[in-house]
Amino acid sequence: MTHYENSFAEHFGKLLASREAELRAALDTGNQKELADEQADNGEVRDFKDLAERESQSDMAALDAERIATELSQVLAARRRLREGTFGRCAECGKPMDLRRLEALPSAALCVACQAADEQAPAAHRQSTRT
Fold this sequence. Notes:
This protein is an all-alpha fold. It has helices spanning 9-41, 48-84, 99-104, 112-120. The protein is built from four helices and no strands.
């Protein structure tokens, strides 16, 4: 069996629920760490090196949080597709998706061919949110 079938819904539901919990925990941990760091520093800056390091860490944390939030959005969209019965079909061409792709990336909305075409398209023409 090489393509998704509805008989796999429970398995993928568990995978997606588990990943959602991991991502929510990561966001919570990141937010708690940021608050703790702010409270510990009391806004004191000892020198420019400290300020630069703090800004760099803040920028990295913001990028990480953005990446996690994006993946969480994709996971939630996949769970919605699962409930609606459209999970496992490419959102672009409608063909059944390869089971290996879904095992590797359960939140994938596009088949490999459509994903490759989407990545080759100019950024202005890409659809930023596929559900």
